[in-house]
Structures are given as structure tokens and as C-alpha cells.
Amino acid sequence: MNNMDLIKTPSSDFKFILGNHAVAEGAIAAGCRFFAGYPITPASEIAERISERMPEVGGRFIQMEDELGSIYATIGASLAGVKAMTATASAGYNYMQEGIGYAIATETPIVIVNVMRLRGAEQATQSDIMQARWSASGDHEMIVLAPSSVQELFDYTIEAFNLSEKYRNPVIILSEMTLSLMRENIKIPDPSEVDIVNRKRPTVPPDEFLPFDAGDDGIPPMSSFGDGYRVLYTLNPHDKRGMITGDLDIYDDLYRRITGKIQRAVDDIVRYEKFYMDDADCAVIAYGSEARSALEAVRRARDEGLKVGLLKLVTVWPFHDELIRDIAEQVKKIVVPEMNVGKYVGEVKRASDCLAEVVSLPLNKGRMHTSAEILSGIKGEAR
Amino acid sequence: MAHPNLKYLRKGSLPHMFCPGCGAGQILNYFIYAIDDLKIDLDKLVMIGGVGCMSRGPAYLNLSAIHGIHGRNLPFATGIKLANPELTVAILMGDGGTAAIGGNHLIQAARRNLDVTVIVNNNGSYAMTGGQVSPMTPKGAVTSTTTRGNLERSFDLCKLVETAGGTYISRWTTAHSVQLINSIKKGLQHKGFSFIEVIGQCPTQYGRYVLGLRDPTSNLNWLLENSLTIRQAEKMTEKELKDKILVGDFFKKEMPTLEDLYIDLEMRIKEGRSG
User: Fold this and answer.
1) Which residues constitute the domain of residue A41?
2) Is the pLDDT of residue A7 over 50?
3) Is ipTM strictly over 0.95?
4) Buried b (16+ CB within 10 A) or exposed e, B34-67
5) Contact residues, chain A, for B86 at CB < 8 Å
6) What superfamily in CATH does domain B22-270 come from?
7) Which residues of B touch A99 (CB under 8 A)?
């Protein structure tokens, strides 16, 4: 069943809810029991819903004084052993970058929802697609999920917590104004059907524990404040004991491990769907809400006899080079529609390695592409 | 024989990075005496530092700690305390982190009566970065960013915290060892937002350039000579009190903490008294 069908299938199993509320419910289903936030359009309904729900499920919500307060309270709660989330929109996300750097350095699992909106205007956009990957200073890999429907907002919020706990890395849910303020029917599973991942715990006594010593997967076990392990968490270069060091060989090793644990796991982390790709000689690559218009455009192209397929990316970062290269080998042309000036297309071009023609289809007017516009792009018609 | 307080230091963390004669080392030492006297369970104690001289303090202690972000100590503490109110949280920070970059967090955490103990080493400047002017630097002082004299006024941090809603407020200097240890103990035992301002010497920056005092002893003597207890100050005129450091326990009040209010709300929901 795809999104289009879902919308047309009202039944008692489904709830007609707001995108932002789906994020709040997804977080609670994932085991999130702390939320700190600061009001901002179009993300505020996440905080509103979760403020009401948290005390019912034994969790805590606090409205902080700003986004810096929100991100650091979120990190503090996670270090104390509670799954934690914050939510904001583009302008508020800017303020959180230093905190994201801290979560990277200390390998603290947290989930951040960033509902993209146009700079200085409350309009739909995907213009922060590169910011989501690159905005924190220093070395890092980001895990960024870009859902395309209210159901996916729910499902991938759970997924975001699981990935964050597994890899000890902040995970961004890159929502959009289109999705956050849209209502759709979604199926909320029974809690027993939800797969939950928890961070791995130390297996040795405190005096033998090296908090930043990892096995082959590059992910060290994690204790919680108060459980006797007495870990020092610092932004500064630190060794396996967590001690601050000026040794730059140790620094180099630390960030090879912190970035390597994500880079080596792209196959596990990257979620995508392929539609009509088997015999395609032209591929549309889209993420977020644009994947919806793109799917409709691909179906219309098929109706006209064109061999067009869609790669819908949910995990937009880390970037799966091999996946894109394989498609570039298969097709003659790749079309990348985006609600911005044309950004992610640069990554697609890089990974395609000149094996296919890559066409950018940007639209930066506060709305999604129509399927007709994407179809024109597929056919190479002048716009 | 090893020093009896050596057990409080994180193994392998020495030598520390404080300059010879720095007040931060004294404050850390006083803090150790306070937790030793109170027999605090170190497994349940979380310390939060930041960036700067005093803020490095927690990294030397054998307990759970957060280090490395400037001025955001109180948001970290808010998350920790709401996630696990059983933990004791103590914060070491400087005047830059407290009065400038973290100023709003200070106001809001005091307003919420978050149950933490904040110890501020106020040395009147950004010492680690080279002695630049801070909100606590007096008007007229020559610093590395006010070479023609500071144009701005400073303000009273303790009064700010009292107005915002802090429930235990005290000020001493590094020269008042016994009184300061007692205040830290009172702060740690107080349920609510405890704020202890310590006027600490910096022989490297403020002492050397503003006071013209290079050695630690003369800096400490200066602190003693320029401090007045609340009782001493009572009999003095405003003119006599000008530029003096008022020390003592200023304020103490029992109030529900932020954590208490959450627990109460959750009880009410459980019992169906509030929807």
C-alpha cells in the first residue's frame, strides 16, 4: 500500500492526524520520555501534543528559554539514560548546531526534528537539505531521515530513535512544512508490534570500563549518570577513558571512529524505495514530499509508454554512493526534483560519476512540484 | 602517605591546567572538602563545567561530569534533573558563562527553582582567552579589549538571582575558606536553586592588569581588605560601601523545586485529579 492508497482508505484502524502529531506519537511509541522545545512555526504542534502526552506515559516535557536550552536539556536527559527529543524549524535549527557537535563528540543518542520552512517566511521548502548534513562544525556524519507522508513521519520517528540508540549519533528527522501541517490517515501499531532498539550497556564493572573504547562496529557501550560508571563527557579531544588529551593522533583516531561507524553502516542505515526501476532507462530521484509528486509523474510517464522509474530516498544522509552509481549505470538520464535552488542534485552528480546525464529540476516558490511539472522535466521539455 | 582527598580526583587527570595561584584551584579544593564533609554519594553526583578556567574543574574529579560547552551548564542540568531527580547536580562556571553567554539560562533556572548548586568563580574577566572585559569587570578597568578603560557598568549577580527566584544565595571570596566551604555545604543540602558567587583572584589577568597585583598572596589580601560581611556593612554609609565586596548568606527560602512540581503533577494525573 502506498501513500496515495492510504489517503483513500478510511477505516477504524486508521487515525486522521496532523503530521506534527504523528511525530509526537511516533516518539512516544519509540520510548522517548523527555522532550525539550521552544515554540516555532511550523513545528509547535509537536511540543503541544507531547506536552499533553508525556505525563500520561511517565515522561517529562519542558518548554525551554530558547533552542540552545532545548538541545542541551535533550542531551542532558539522554546522558541520564532517558530517550530524548527536541523539535524545531529551520531558523531554530540554526541555534542547535553547537549542541549537535556536542552530541557527536560525546556520542549521545538524541533525535532532532527539523521542520524546514523558507528563510523568513512560513512556506514549504527543502532548502535545508545540505544544512542537515553539514551545519555542525568539526568532523561528523549525520543520519537524516526525510519522510514523505504523515504515516512515514510516525514510522520514521520510531526508526530515528532506533538508529540513534544503535549508532550513538544524533538523528535528524527532516520534516517539511507541507507534511507537518497536513492531516492524513495513519495506522498506529499496537506497542507490541513496534521494534525498539536500546543503546548497549557496559558489561564490565566500573573500574574496568573504558567509555570510549569500541569494538569492530565502532560503537562503545554507554552507561547512564547515576549508575556508578562516573563517565566524563567532553567536547575536547578525549581518549578511550574519556580523559581530555592534547595528543592529535588520539584525536585523529577518535574522529575516524566516530565518522567510520556511520560510513561503514550505510547499507543498514539507508532506507529507500524503488518504483518501476527494473526496466527503467530514466530515473527520478526524490526525497520528502517531492517523492509524492515524483511517483505520480512516473506513473503518468509509464501510461505514456516511457520507461521511467523512481528512487525515493528516505535516508538522505549518509549518502549511499553505490546505490546512486548503480542507477547511473543502468539509466541514461536522472532527474532530481527539489523544492529549493537545486542542492542535493550535486551529490547525485558526484556519485553518478558521469555515467548518466543528471538533470536538476529545482522549484523554489514555497510549494511542491506538480506531477505535470516533473513529467515535463522527465521529457526534457522547456519549462 | 597519599593526601586523604586524592580519592576525589579522577585518576590520571593531573597536572591541572590552572595557573599558579589561581582561585579556581582553591574553589575546587573547597568543593572537595564540602562533599567530603557531607559524605555525598559520588555515584549519584553529576558535575557540569563548561569552557574556561573554572569550568575545567569537573574534569579533574572522580565523578560523572559534563565538560566543553560554554554557558549551557543549566540547560544540561535541567535535562538531567528532569530525567532523574535523584541525582545531585553541581555546576562550576565562570563569570563569562554565568553573566554573559549563559545569562538567560541563569534567570530561567533560578525562576524554575531547579534543584542544583551553582558555584561561580567571578574573577572579573575572561581569563582563559587573555583577560578580556566581562559583564563583571568594573567600569573604567583596563583589559585586553578595553585598553582605554571599560565604558560599561557591571551588576550584582546575587541580586539578579534573588529577583529571578533562586532560593539559596551566598557570596564569599577565595580568601574566606571556612565560610565558603560552609556555603557550598549549605548549597548542596538546600533543596532548590542554590547560587554561590565566589570572588576569585586571577593573578595572571585581572590581578596583574586591573589591580596591578602579580602575586597570589597580594591578590588574596586585596580580596580580604575589600570585603565586608553583611553585619559590618549594616553600620556603613553608601559612600563607604562603594566598590566593596559584600559577603555572606544573603537569602534562603524553602519552595517546591521544579522536579517536585512535575512529580506532583504526575501524582495528580495518576489519581485522576487533573486531566
Assistant:
1) 3-193
2) no
3) yes
4) bbeeeebebebbbbbbbbbbbbbbbbbbbbbbbb
5) 226
6) Thiamin diphosphate (ThDP)-binding fold, Pyr/PP domains (3.40.50.970)
7) 69, 72
How would you class B153 by CB atoms within 10 Å of its CB: exposed for 0-12, middle for 13-18, buried for 19 or more? exposed
> Is the pLDDT at B230 greater than 50, yes or no?
yes
> For position A11, what pLDDT does the model report?
52
The per-residue pLDDT for range A266-306, each reduced to its tens digit, is 999 999 999 999 999 999 999 999 999 999 999 999 999 99
Min distance A62 CA to chain B CA atoms (Å) = 9
Q: How far apart are the first and last CA of chain B?
A: 61
The C-alpha atoms of residue A85 and residue A104 are separated, in whole angstroms, by: 15
A284 phi and psi, to 5 degrees? -100, 130
Q: What pLDDT score does A1 carry?
A: 41
- Number of other residues whose CB lies within 10 A of the CB of residue A16: 11
Is B75 close to A79, i.e. CB distance below 8 A?
Answer: no
* All cell numbers assigned to B176: 574566606
Give the model confidence (pLDDT) of B112-158 as tens digits.
999 999 999 999 999 999 999 999 999 999 999 999 999 999 999 99
Output the nine-digit C-alpha cell for A3.
501513500
Q: Specify the number of domains making up chain A.
A: 2
Q: 10 Å Cβ neighbour count for A244?
A: 18
**Cα–Cα dist B53/B26, whole Å:** 12
Instruction: Using the 3D structure, point to which of A193, A226, A258 is the last residue of a domain.
Output: A193
Alpha-carbon distance of A311 to A327, in angstroms, equals: 9
Q: What are the residues whose beta carbons fall under 8 Å from the beta carbon of A78, sequence distance 6 or more?
A: A34, A84, A103, A108, A109, A110, B79, B83
Report CA torsion sign: B196, B201, B205, B207: positive
> Who among A65, A80, A84 is closest to B108 (CB)?
A65
Domain boundary (A193, A216, A239) is at A193
Please indicate whether, in this complex, the C-beta atoms of A58 and B43 are within 8 angstroms of each other: no
Measure the CA–CA gap between A368 and A362, rounded to whole angstroms: 10
Computed on alpha carbons and rounded to an integer, the radius of gyration of chain B in Å comes to 19
Nearest CA distance, B165 vs chain A (angstrom) = 15
pLDDT at A322 over 90: yes
Q: Name the residue among A313, A373, A383, A382 with its Cα closest to residue A345.
A: A313
d(CA B123, CA B141): 13
Q: Do A36 and B78 touch (CB under 8 A)?
A: yes
Q: Is residue A362 helix, strand or coil?
A: strand
A232/B108 touch (CB, cutoff 8 Å), yes or no = no
The label of the residue with cell 574566606 reads B176
A17 plus A143 within the same structural domain: yes
Cell of B134: 566581562
| Residue of chain A nearest B261, judged by CA positions | A60
